[in-house]
Amino acid sequence: MNQPNESAMSQMAQPEISQEHLVNLMQRLEYTMEEAYSCEEAFALLDEYVELVATDEEAKRLMPLVKNHLDMCPDCQDEFEILLHILKTADSDE
């Protein structure tokens, strides 16, 4: 089998990683917990978490794994913000 030589490998395009992306990755790794939730697990509890946040209860203390997941997952964070907005809007309409 033909292996690329060192010269050919050095000429291959290397992906550019900006310092901002690298810092973001390092922060996410820093906050990763051994028992972190997946998106599916966090989403299953998101409605309860939103209600705690909306009622000013200490959601971060009561549901730390959900909070940790939201801090690391932009997609789930977006879902959280949408649900929180809906809940607050519904409460203000009453």
What does this structure look like?
This protein is mainly alpha-helical and 94 residues long. The protein has a domain at 35-94. It is 72% helix and 0% strand. It has helices at 6-11, 19-31, 39-54, 59-62, 64-72, 74-93. Helix 3 runs parallel beside helix 6 (74-93) and helix 5 (64-72) packs across helix 6 (74-93). It is elongated, with a radius of gyration of 20 Å. The model has no long low-confidence stretch (mean pLDDT 82).
Concise account of the structure shown:
It is built from six helices and no strands. By secondary structure, the chain is mainly alpha-helical.
Please report which band the strand proportion falls in: under 5%, 5-15%, 15-25%, 25-35%, 35-45% or over 45%: under 5%
- N-to-C series of helices and strands: HHHHHH
Low-confidence stretches: none
- What's the gyration radius in Å? 20 Å
Q: Mind describing the biggest β-sheet?
A: none
Mean pLDDT: 82
Helix % is over 70%
What is the general shape?
elongated
- Through-space gap between termini: 72 Å
Give me the secondary-structure category: mainly alpha
Number of strands: 0
Q: How many helical stretches?
A: 6
